[in-house]
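re: ur msg from earlier - yeah i can do the zinc ion complex, just paste it... oh wait u already did. ok heres what im feeding in:
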Amino acid sequence: MGLFDSVYADCPHCGKPVEFQTKADEAPYMRRYTLEDAPDHMLQDILNKPHHCQACDGWFALLDQRFPIVPPRPAPIAAKVKTPTDCGVHEQGFKWWPWERRFTVADLETATPPLPNGER
Ligand SMILES: [Zn+2]
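and the outut:
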């Protein structure tokens, strides 16, 4: 217990590496990463969390505007999906999506997914 992984990011004030600890992995094991080679789920975990740099006494946070500090409330829109040729079929007629392949925008009837009202 108490294991974590570390992602090091350069302080924007002084340039020294600062450690961001994460327990986002299923099995944290004191691994060390940089922003370039850290797995996605670890990067997501360390976003928007201000850290203190002991070298210069400055504070900074790792930001990505696609992952806002306060996430917007989901506003789902029902989009038509092309009928898959490889879906599962139950003898009583139930069908389910073939999850062994990834669902992408290419599966949508329209080229781009619709956005919530007022956004473009
Ligand atoms: Zn610093």
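cool cool. The mean pLDDT is 90. ping me if u need the other ligands too
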